[in-house]
Amino acid sequence: MFFLYFIIIGLISGWLAAKVMNVKGSGLLIYLGLGVVGAYVGHFIFKIIGLLFWGLFGTLFSAFLGAVVVIFIVRLFKSRR
Hints:
The chain is an all-alpha fold. Helix content is 81%, strand content 0%.
């Protein structure tokens, strides 16, 4: 059950972050990857700050913000090429 929850949160947060950051040509695997990596990044960032989110909306918020940070970092490195 936890794995299914993790997949759903990853897809939703990755999709939201891609829409907010205007990422074109993305599919379900990209959204899932963004969401999963974003969840780890978001958890790490908020742990450093001293905030931890619980529940569906807290986890989704943390994963969404982490995915936005991941997209920002990828774009930063792509523009340096």
